[in-house]
Each structure stands twice: as structure tokens, then as C-alpha cells.
Amino acid sequence: xxxxxxxxxxxxxxxxxxxxxxxxxxxxxxxxxxxxxxxxxxxxxxxxxxxxxxxxxxxxxxxxxxxxxxxxxxxxxxxxxxxxxxxxxxxxxxxxxxxxxxxxxxxxxxxxxxxxxxxxxxxxxxxxxxxxxxxxxxxxxxxxxxxxxxxxxxxxxxxxxxxxxxxxxxxxxxxxxxxxxxxxxxxxxxxxxxxxxxxxxxxxxxxxxxxxxxxxxxxxxxxxxxxxxxxx
Length: 232
What we know:
- The protein has 232 residues and is mostly helical.
- Helices cover 59% and strands 10% of the residues.
- The chain is flat and about 60 Å long.
């Protein structure tokens, strides 16, 4: 399919120099299997780079804007916006899904809307932007397209996810820190599912499932919260 660099420039709000770099950023590994003649690599290396850029810039933003917040709160703030559901939603809003190079299999099973593929693409594009235009342009993009929502997250305490809430409850009531263990996993590498248990000592308090370890842990924590509240 044709690649529209001008559209990427409109989204990123900057002039770009390397079309091939950004074409790579939108190349899912599944596309390579069906197109051996394709010259670009997958976006996984750019995703690795973009993840580090995103961690740095989001940490910098929070450090500069929440001057009285301790390290633990800053970590929770960052986790609430720099996570798969959050950056996947922003990638979908920006229209990244429409520009992906995907295999027919991924295409027919909804890959253009799949959260983790979109989140990985968000990071890959950021990695490409860093190589093409540098850190300052990346900072402008991250602050504009992601960190805009942090004030609302903090105000509504949305950064306190199920894992954080269960840990607070468990430590207050029992003095024990929850431990998460993977009980089972299944499916192909690119679309694994996980079952996770959360434990206080040897006792299991919740079981959860999800398309990632993090989601399964959150699901387990939600079940554990229901159990601990039922005992109040």
C-alpha cells in the first residue's frame, strides 16, 4: 500500500526527512512473513528506542510539573499514562492503525484496532521521530499528544489502579505485600493470554486473565479487592 509521509508530518506537526525510517515505524513484523520482497525491517527496534524516549520525557514532564509529589506518586502518575491502554488509545486517536503494514491474518482479526499493536506503534513512531528530529521535537509531541491528560488523572486519582489499591488494603489490614504469580499461559507468541494469581503469603486471593501479564495481574487484583471488601 502507498505510504503517505505528508500525513505523518501533519500528525506529528513537523517536517520529516526520512520516509523509510517512518515506513519502518509502521511495519508490523507479521507483514514481513507475507512479503519477502519488502526491504524494510519490522518496527520492533524502533519500539525499543521509543520506549526509552517515552520513559525519559514523561518522567521529565512529571518532575517539572508536580514539584511536591514524592517519587512513589510520580511513578504511579507515569504508569497511568505510559501504559498499553493509554498510549494505544492515543495511537488510535492519531490514526496510526490506518497506516500500518500488517499481514492479511492480522488485518482480518482486527489488528489495526488491537491495543498492544497500536501502543507498540506509538513507541516506534516516537523512536523514529527521535532519530529524525531529535529530543526537543519528541518532547513537544509527547507533551501535546499524551501528557495533556495527566492533570485529570491526578485530580480523579485514576493513577490508583487495582494493583495499587489492593496493595494499600492488604498492607493496612495484614501487613503483607501481595505477590503475583503466572499460573498458565497459552496462544501464539504474538497473541498470548495469561492466567495470574495474587497471593498474600501462601494464600491465593484472586485469579485473573488477560492478553498481557499486566492485564492479568490487574484482573487478579480486582478479584482480590472484591474478596477483601466482602470480609469487611
